[in-house]
Design a protein that fits this description.
Rossmann fold, alpha/beta, 18% strand, 6-stranded parallel β-sheet
């Protein structure tokens, strides 16, 4: 490689769909310093994010044969985005071809204790919650110096600047997710009739409605209150969506290992209502939403509906929480800062005297 030539960085992901994992990858790749790094993306499945990557000048390789892609491209750095548990299809090519640096974004904070897992030089967790849960469960048996937090990036500048000044007394809530039952909670269903009783003309704007939710709205006669919208890919459109509401109503029984929708709503200056998850499930939503600071945390449907209603009837408090959330998102999740931190991680690993031998 010629001295001074940008280093090749290949980001590998399973698909280019609209999920948070894919969006985090897209934002990282598109904001890398092109004087230092030349980014590429490899995915087995096409999706909506390919067009955005293409607009940013990032080459996209649609190929399920990661061995072939790495062998031909010969990247200096390979950055994989995956759940975190053993996935031999991702790691076998890396074990065989041994790029200079291998980094993973470990989305769910899980352990890959297989020999193949040793090929990864640095494991990046997307929340402090994931790191602390991992350390409590596996700390004595792993080298924790290879694990650290790098939050998912958010375009806080765009979402913060283009969100209009809003009337927090407007009885409009919203939610967004994929149209996946695993991303929902019954709280998002059952709160609606409580809200209808207290605020007959309230509106609930929904991106990612499931057939079950649509059936519920139809059966309960709530279509005058609920507006179901198609998915949004561009942050400009997402900002307009956030501009129509006075709060985000997040409800997901699976929990969040980060909570991209929450962080984006916070960046737009919205307070967030959420709920904790139980047991060993993901619970980073209550890391982002600090009760009484950036939103409200509820446990039951009555508490949840009451929290939404309280924010509508206390607009000054809602504004205060929205501004606190906006400040927190800009401080912790701003894409430019996250990407600079990622570049520092890459450089630190590249500057090692030699690659350590992993089992």
């Amino acid at each position: 490689m010629t001295i001074g030539q940008p280093l090749r960085v290949l980001h590998a992901v399973k698909s280019l769909g609209i999920g948070g994992t894919e969006k985090a990858m897209q934002l990282m790749v598109c904001n890398l310093d092109r004087s230092r790094f030349t980014p590429f993306v490899c995915s087995a499945l096409d999706g909506e994010r390919r067009a955005l990557l293409k607009e940013a000048g990032v080459p996209v390789i649609l190929n399920s044969d990661l061995f072939r892609v790495i062998n031909q491209l010969k990247p200096d750095i390979v950055h994989i985005h995956r759940a975190g548990w053993p996935e031999p299809g991702f790691l076998k090519p890396l074990r065989l071809l041994r790029p200079r640096v291998v980094v993973e974004t470990n989305v769910f904070g899980r352990l890959d204790g297989t020999p193949l897992g040793g090929v990864i030089d640095k494991h990046l967790f997307v929340s402090q919650f994931c790191l602390e849960r991992f350390a409590a469960e596996f700390g004595p048996s792993v080298d924790l110096s290879r694990y650290q937090v790098l939050h998912n990036p958010v375009d806080t500048d765009l979402l913060g600047l283009t969100a209009p000044e809003r009337d927090f007394s407007r009885t409009v809530a919203g939610r967004l997710s994929r149209a996946d039952p695993g991303k929902w909670s019954r709280l998002a269903f059952d709160m609606l009739e409580h809200l209808k009783a207290a605020h007959p003309d309230f509106k609930f704007l929904v991106l990612g409605a499931t057939p079950e939710f649509e059936d519920f709205v139809r059966e309960r006669g709530l279509f005058a209150n609920v507006e179901i919208l198609p998915p949004l890919v561009r942050d400009e459109d997402l900002s307009s969506f956030f501009g129509r509401m006075s709060l985000l109503a997040h409800a997901n029984d699976t929990g969040e290992s980060f909570g991209m929708a929450i962080a984006e709503a916070m960046a737009a200056g919205l307070p967030v209502v959420t709920h904790p998850t139980r047991g060993n499930r993901d619970n980073a939503q209550v890391e982002l939403v600090e009760h009484g600071v950036t939103g409200l945390v509820a446990n039951t449907v009555e508490e949840y509906a009451g929290a939404v209603s309280w924010l509508w009837t206390h607009p000054d408090e809602a504004r205060r929480m929205g501004l606190a959330g906006r400040e927190k998102a800009a401080r912790l999740y701003r894409v430019q800062n996250i990407t600079r931190a990622l570049e520092d991680i890459y450089q630190e690993l590249l500057d090692r005297p030699c690659r350590p031998c992993q089992p």
